Amino acid sequence: MDALRLDDQVCFAVHAASRALDAVYRRELAALGLTYPQYLVMLVLWERGQVSVKDLGLALRLDSGTLSPLLKRLEAAGLVRRERDPGDERSVLVRLTPEGTLLRARAEPLPRRIMEASGMGPDELADLHRTLGRLTRSLTESAGRP
Amino acid sequence: MDALRLDDQVCFAVHAASRALDAVYRRELAALGLTYPQYLVMLVLWERGQVSVKDLGLALRLDSGTLSPLLKRLEAAGLVRRERDPGDERSVLVRLTPEGTLLRARAEPLPRRIMEASGMGPDELADLHRTLGRLTRSLTESAGRP
DNA sequence: TGCAACTCGATTGTGCACAACTTAATTGAG
DNA sequence: CTCAATTAAGTTGTGCACAATCGAGTTGCA
């Protein structure tokens, strides 16, 4: 077999799956006025209520270059507020507005709909989840020390 | 369990894995002067030698809005040439330059290095590959008819 | 205490991804 | 044969992702 054949490369399969998921989420989230990465940010906020930009970056593995403009758009949409942490003026705290909190209810049915679109059962999805977690960890570690 | 918990969502696992792979490829491909999507295009060209923009889009599931500027950059780098198909002037054929053909040798060791960084065995990777293929197909089909 | 090192976030620049639209070439129904 | 519909690329605009860099604020240690 040819090591460079496109169809044989797992990288492409991951890439393609990621974009296919993105497309499905794009459709489902359009009604909420959110993009998929904005939805991820909202998930963290619905879980924790309030979070610093740094902790958001740790949770989502995104840096400030991605988060700063994204959070500005969420703020412009009236879903979050940003303010300096009084205890440490370097840090910016992001928290939900009432509108942002209310949006949660409308996001609630989403995971089930995506699961149905995936055509896979809960066990299979859990398995995939574990495998991908392991892959991500390995890749991240190997990237750390070249 | 809470359906909206970030850690429980497969979508995030796929997204994170895709970006982690991207990061590893970024490092490996830097020496070749390629980005990861440019590498995917080169894979197709190394396989087929010559391809229309349309067929490239079908193979990679990318539209002209993504491919046009990407191909311009590959052309500026001297790796490909683009010319109208004499048989159908709407179509643009992309083909390798000698430099582009030569680059293949330097890309050859890449899949093995990525496989090592993944920390997974061939069987496990093949399994993941199959699962992701199925997932992508289901999602694409469900996106087709909302 | 004073200043060097570090932390946090924002900004800038490049490139990918996609939607919506434009233009040019081709096809086909009447 | 003609012209409306279709097809192929390209263009424009928006948003995500990341590297590199900057400036303000904090910490630690000499």
From TrEMBL, chains A, B:
<dbReference type="InterPro" id="IPR000835">
    <property type="entry name" value="HTH_MarR-typ"/>
</dbReference>
<protein>
    <submittedName>
        <fullName>DNA-binding MarR family transcriptional regulator</fullName>
    </submittedName>
</protein>
<dbReference type="InterPro" id="IPR036388">
    <property type="entry name" value="WH-like_DNA-bd_sf"/>
</dbReference>
<dbReference type="Pfam" id="PF01047">
    <property type="entry name" value="MarR"/>
</dbReference>
<dbReference type="InterPro" id="IPR039422">
    <property type="entry name" value="MarR/SlyA-like"/>
</dbReference>
<feature type="domain" description="HTH marR-type">
    <location>
        <begin position="7"/>
        <end position="137"/>
    </location>
</feature>
<dbReference type="InterPro" id="IPR036390">
    <property type="entry name" value="WH_DNA-bd_sf"/>
</dbReference>
<keyword id="KW-0238">DNA-binding</keyword>
<dbReference type="GO" id="GO:0003677">
    <property type="term" value="F:DNA binding"/>
</dbReference>
